[in-house]
Specification:
This is YceI family protein. Belongs to the UPF0312 family. The protein is mainly β and 186 residues long. It has one domain: Lipid/polyisoprenoid-binding, YceI-like (Lipocalin, Beta Barrel), CATH 2.40.128. It is built from 1 helix and 10 strands. Strands 1, 2, 3, 4, 5, 6, 7, 8, 9 and 10 form a 10-stranded antiparallel β-sheet that branches. A hairpin with a 3-residue loop joins strand 3 and strand 4. The N and C termini lie far apart (40 Å).
């Protein structure tokens, strides 16, 4: 039986923590042709963690740029940016806005609204607080790792191709992994 608490993790102080875009990343993986996984990244361009007196008064926001998608293959990246997938000209940003933050039996869960491809859906991020450290420039940093799985179809990302042997080229499920480094603001 899990117990929900609102206590902040040790080392995480109240205030605003800005996401350091150069040390943070959003990654995805999807099954390709039913036999392998394709992985890629999308840049987090800005965001903040506003830490209240407890988790119930804590919030998270983030903005991502789908035109930065990188899978290690320029042709595939261009296809992902096209109208078949992300339609980056029509939908140049993705956003996440939390609706709640909780500690459920020792595991942190950040619930919120994820907007991709112009569609907003609720998601829950299983989140690990990795601690705090002072960097070489005197900045207090906090680290977080988060994961979730989404349905591409729920976000209007329906392009696919049938395979001769049955099945489809791109799986509906996409696993998301987010690594965040945030800097405590003065």
């Amino acid at each position: 039986m899990s117990t929900t608490t609102t206590t902040l993790p040790a080392g995480l102080t109240t205030g605003v923590w800005a996401i350091d875009a150069s040390h943070s990343e959003a990654a995805f993986s999807v099954r390709h042709a039913g036999i392998s996984k394709v992985r890629g990244t999308v840049a987090i361009t800005e965001g903040a963690l506003t830490v209240g007196e407890d988790l119930s008064s804590t919030s998270v926001t983030a903005t991502l740029d789908p035109s930065t998608v990188s899978t290690g293959d320029a042709g595939r990246d261009g296809h992902l940016q096209s109208a078949d997938f992300f339609e980056v000209e029509s939908f140049p940003t993705w956003t996440f806005v939390s609706t709640s933050v909780r500690n459920d039996g020792g595991e942190f869960v950040i619930a919120g609204d994820l907007t991709l491809h112009g569609v907003t859906r609720p998601v829950e991020l299983a989140t690990e607080f990795n601690g705090t450290a002072v960097d070489a420039y005197g900045n207090l940093r906090a680290g977080f790792s988060a994961t979730t799985t989404i349905s591409r179809k729920e976000f209007g990302l329906t392009w696919n191709a049938a395979l001769e042997a049955g099945g489809v080229l791109v799986s509906d499920k996409a696993a998301l992994t987010i690594e965040i480094s945030a800097i405590r603001q003065a």
